[in-house]
Every structure is written in structure tokens, then in C-alpha cells.
Amino acid sequence: DTVHVYGIPMPLDIQPYVTKVWEKEVGKMEVIWKFPAEHNNEISHFDVYRCFTHNGLFEKANNTPISVTTRQYLDPDALSINYYKVIAVDVNGYEVESVPRFAQLDDEVAPSPPTIVDCNADLDGIAQFRWQNNTEEDLYGYRVYMSNQPNGEYTQLTSTIIKDTVFYEQFNLNTLSEEVYLKVTALDFRENQSEHSEVCILKLPDVVPPSPPNIVDISPAMGKITVQWECSTNQDVEIHEVQRKDATGLIWETLWSTDATGLITYEDTTATYDRNYHYRIAAIDDADNISYSKALQARPLDDGIRAAITNFWGIVYLISNPNPPQSELIYGGGIVGLAWEYPISPQLHSFLIYREVQGSMYAYKTVYPDDALVTQQDLDDALQEFGNTGSYSNYYTPTDELFFFRDEGLLGGQAYKYKIVARYIDGAVSPMSKSVTVMY
After folding, report:
1. Residues 84, 31: Cα–Cα separation, whole Å
2. What is the full DSSP assignment across 266-286?
3. Mind listing the pLDDT tens digit for each residue in 113-132?
């Protein structure tokens, strides 16, 4: 059998070379290329392809094959952005193509301003700024701008044109500015830039404490301490608190709060003479950030007068006025029991009992707290001893510690009047108690 074999030549080792692409007429691009004329007989025709990007899918621009002797083609449907390449198709069907050549139509029309979606920041100051993608075919990218004032000068944040519709930036939170203002512009391939977008107000997390208040005066007086301070100057401060602690303590307590501003004065009437106190002012803003003034120490002045003795009365063998407590009692027998209430204090030294007989009042007995301190049951037992079937609680509701002193050897036909004074280690005293008078 006879076998016929036909060889197929290799593709051409030469290719077209695009020398120029320009806008010959409005909206029309002319593509000009070179190809050696001596190889015209080796090709069947030329085709011109175009694409919006250099690495995208190229489409044929010409509807009919271009003659082998032709070296230019006018594209009537040019895109705003074009990458052109020329392909030579040889007589064996092989294609050799040129390197793509970029060209774009004359364009002075800028893209529309982008439409803002939102902007927000996390607690670390990392902000996300989003906008909608523009729809222009020749859109190249975006630039982001910021300002510290809504109508201030905006500076560019982006160092290069970005292609995405989201932008991230970390802001310094150690600043008194709580808002940053962001805008974005769109650019096309000719770098025609749109107007700025609407402003997006970025609220930064407030982690900066307000400026501290300043205590300008602290004045001790009898039974009180007056504190005067200048408020924090920050506009976002919502409240100022007066805080106090014992000089040897650790825990601060809030005495008073105010939303006033300027120069404020507060009188602490709960401070006691026997303690040194530290005072400070707290400023709290709308994000609960707190700053404190410098703490200052003070102590109320001491007038030497302590708490008054309360519920002082006598217990006797009653033969008249049978409903105690009374300030004047007729008793049977030479004994009287004296009961009273008083707050316990480490500084309390003793009680001095005064007694008046036949119009002469004198210091009669010194009674020490540990010797006179009793319980309510002890007083109830004393009432029983003196023939009273009632209970102490029938007459008083105790608010302080109870004390009791028994005075014996009273003489018949005499009136005895008693008063009591509490005495302190530092020389302070209580006011003289009311008097209790008994007669036998």
C-alpha cells in the first residue's frame, strides 16, 4: 500500500508589533502596527483584539478579516480603557500575536462621589470605613481622607490608591478628640477624581480620663470640714464626687455627688473630732473614665464637748409616782439605782456622778465604764429587785450601751439630786446630764 505523508510547517517566528494607538476620532481608536511585507504571502489575514484589562479575556474588534497588506485599523467601538493586540493568522491556521498596547479615550469626566456605608472603631482604636463600589467602567480606585473637624481641612490617609471598598486604620486613643471625620473619593484611570463623599463621623472609644479636679481649699471647723474645689474642665464630665477615707484606711466612700460645674463647696458634717481624714474629688465622664484630685488631709476642730448622756433615771422602792422613769421619785428604803445610756469609745475614761444634798452639789463618785456596764437583762433584774414588774424595754428602746450604779446608805427625810458627766482621756467631757431627784 502507498502512504502519503504531508508535512505542516512550523508557525511563523515573527509577530506583529503595535507601534501606536490613538484616538483618531471622538470615541474611535486607530491601531497601527508593523509586520514585514516580505512575509505577507505567509499569512492569510490580521485580526485586532481588545480588552478592558491587560490580562483579561480579549475580544475581536474587527468584524471581517483585515487584509495582509493593511497595517492599521480604526476601532469604532473603543472602550474607555483599552488594551489592544494584533494577531497574524498564517496560511496554516497558526496565530502569532503582538504584545498588548494600552490606550484610553480622552476623559475629563470624574467618577461620582462614593456612597458611605458606615464607619466604626473597636476598643483598640482600629477603625473600619466602608462605602459602596462605584459603577463606572473606568474606575481605578479610591482615596481616603480624614479631619479632626467636620468642616476642617482633610488630609489623605491612603498612601496609594486602594481598590477595595473598605479601609482600616488604627487611631491613637490617647487624645481628647472623641470623633474623627472621614471622607472618600473615587478616581478613574486618567486620575480624574470625584468630589468628596459625605462625611462619616467615626466615634472613637473614650479611654482617656478627664482632666482632674483641683481642691483649692480644705478648712476644718467645729464639727465639720469644708472642701472647695475647681471642677474638671472637660465637657464630657457628667458628675463630680466628694470622696473620703480614714487616714489609716484603704477604702474610699462617696459622701456627695453633683453635676454642677465651676467652683464648688461642700461641708462634711459627719466627720468626727477623733479621726484624721483624707479627701479627694472624683470627676467621671460619659464613658465612666475617672480622674481624681490630689488627696488632702483634714480633721475637725475639737471643742472638747462629747455626746450627751441619755435616758438617765432612777430606780427605787416606790411608794408614790409608781410609773418610772421619773425625774423625781419618793422611795422607801435607803437605796437608789441610777441607769443611763452612753456610747462606748476607747477614749472614754470614766463617769463622774454629782450628788446634791441639802442644796449643795458636789462631785460624789467616779465610776469606770467597765464597772458600770450592764446588759438589758441586768436592768430588768434590778427593776425586779426594787419591786417593779416591768422591763427596761417598756420605757426605752436602747440606742447606746447601758450603765448602772447603785447608791446605798441614803438617809430618811433627805432629798438627793443626781447628775452625771462623761469624762475622756484627752480631757473632753459630755454635757451635764439632766437631774434625777429621790426622797425618803
Report:
1. 8
2. EEE-S--TT--EEEEEEEEET
3. 999 999 999 988 899 999 99
